[in-house]
Amino acid sequence: MRVVVTLEEEELARIRSLVETGSAHSAWGFVQHAVSLALDDVDDWVRILGSALDATGGPLTDKERCWADGVLGTGPGAAR
Fold first, then answer.
1. Distance (Å, rounded) from C-alpha 79 to C-alpha 74?
2. pLDDT tens-digit profile of 24-47?
3. Which of 13, 59, 60, 76 shows its CA 20 to 30 Å from the CA of 47?
């Protein structure tokens, strides 16, 4: 599958510099690695949150989720 990703010029210049110095094999390889790390981070946070919720009474209630969405500016209708 082909995916087009837009990066800031400064970010792309930094990636290209890493490739030129041999610190990264290719720009695509660098991006693949970065995505993999980000996905691992998400998995870790899901596990940590799950453990914290289990230790403090289980999943959020609808009321708690609504409160959290308001505080964090997330949830339905939030600007992204």
1. 8
2. 999 999 999 999 999 999 999 999
3. 76
Counts for the chain of helices (H) and strands (E), in that order: 3, 0
Cα separation of 31 and 33, whole Å? 5
Pairwise CA distance, residues 59 & 46, whole Å:
12
**Rounded to whole angstroms, how far apart are CA atoms 41 and 18?**
23
| Number of neighbours of residue 24 by Cβ within 10 angstroms | 19
Distance CA 5, CA 76 (A): 25
Give the separation between CA 76 and CA 3, rounded to whole angstroms. Answer: 27
